[in-house]
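Troubleshooting: if your tokenizer reports a length mismatch, compare your output against this known-good record of 247 residues.
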Amino acid sequence: MSTLALLKKTLLILPILGLFTACGSDSDDLPKPDRNTKMLYIDFNDGATGWKPGFADYPAGQETFYELSSGLETLPTSLGTNRKGFKLSGNNHSDDLYMFVTKQVDGLEPNTRYDFRFKVTFGTNAQKNCMGVGGAPGESVWVKIGASKTEPKATNDGAGNLLMNIDKGQQGSGGTDAILVGDFANNRECGDNNTSYMKKSLLSDKGAFTATTDDKGNIWILLSTDSGFEATTTIYFMELEVAATKK
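Known-good structure output:
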């Protein structure tokens, strides 16, 4: 790809432990790379080595009841022929299911605070303005992205519930370790006969999120959904762009 070759020559690419192929972007809505800004481009069609899925905000041992599944899978044909994405799926019996995928990346300066901006592209089959159990299947499933020097994990709270060990906020609100970037609804009106998956991209605001690297210059990147819709949500994460600007 000529665009990829040009990017490799002109951009500072934030490495992913040498496991991902850098992928170029035609987007002008993230900061241009400079001496203080490093860029990360992920296309899950290239693979998902090192990405760890997880689920939280549900009772431990209830994985089958919640129909939890995850992993790199072939996308629905409406999203691209013979292409892959990272799938997260679950049936939200708790009215609060959190689904995530995370990976540690390196290449930043140690113990340094960065301003992070994110652009994520995913597949969604949730039409807008629909009613749903507990909440809408689109607008009540919130997409959050974050970065933390602590590995995001679901841990038992001692009462049998799996909760996150980082501050990802609660449903429609972000936290210190994850920012709300939008929701799962696509642009088809509720009741449209076309119920196939379609692409959606969300972009975080400038200056809305900062995080600090560890003493080796590493940080964990997090993609996730936080749901108030009490039924099944299946999302396919396709692409991610990250701009990390040293403060």
